[in-house]
Amino acid sequence: MITEERIACDYERTGHIQAASKAAHFDAFRDEQALLARVFDHRVELVSRADQRSEVGTEIYHGLLVDERSAALNPARYVEGLAPASNTLDALQTAFLETGGAQCGICTPGMLMAGRAYLDAGGGPDDDAIREAIAGNLCRCTGYTKIVEAIARAASQGSSQ
User: How much of the chain, in percent, has pLDDT values that exceed 70?
Assistant: First the structure.
């Protein structure tokens, strides 16, 4: 997104090292390494206590978790750059605005996410299918009529973005 929206925020890959101050922490690093690989296809390296001197110049820790893909940015410039990027609404957001689907706003983030997942999966303007897709989100304002209408409108416009 930073590249796509041309956000000038001093983004750079910096890497990140976590040090285990206890043996149990290094064991937790193993679990974290497996989770990151399995769920996010993100590879991190475990460095044993015996090999850590080359990374940090000491053997005081019980091992390291090294993430070479970690990155850093200037948060103020990033937030500043998000403002222009956020001025564009997609078809689903526009439909929520035009139909009054946002209503009080409390359930709107969840409804937008559920609506987006429904549309991205190829869902069409079928009221019953839309109601099933948003069933995990509670709206305390109405009977979901405006929300369903908004998602159906976006689906009719071929929204997949």
Answer: 98
